[in-house]
What does this fold into?
Amino acid sequence: QVQLVESGGGSVQAGGSLRLSCVGSGRSFSTYAMGWFRQCPGKEREFVAAITWSGEITYYADSVKGRFSISRDNAKNTVYLQMNSLKPEDTAVYYCAAGGLGFARTTLIRPDTYDTWGQGTQVTVSS
It folds into this structure.
C-alpha cells in the first residue's frame, strides 16, 4: 500500500517553531517532487512549499518565505517542513504530497501535480 504519513503537528504559541515530517512507504518517491500544502476550514487547499527530486530547487508561498524551510532525505523517503516564527494565520491542517513531475514553480504549486497525499496533521498557533 502506497501511503504518506505526516507527523510533528501540534499547538504552539506565536513565534514558536515546529518541524513536520512526512514518511513515504510502499513506493520510492526519490525521483519525484514533493510538497506541503495546508487547508483551513471552509477554504481551499493552498500551496506552502515544494522541493524537486534532488532537493536542489525549492519553492515557497510568499506568506511563508523566510520562515519555513523544506528539505528531504531520499534515503529515508522523507520530506520535512521546518516552520519558524509561526503566526496565528499559519493555523491549518498541513498535508504532504508526493509524485510530482517537473521542475517549474507553476507546476509544483498545483495540488493536481501530485498523485499521493498524506492524511494531514493539525498545526495550531495561538497568539
Q: What stands out?
A: The chain has a mean pLDDT of 96. Residues 105-108 form the longest helix (4 residues). The helical segments are 105-108. The chain has one helix and eleven strands.
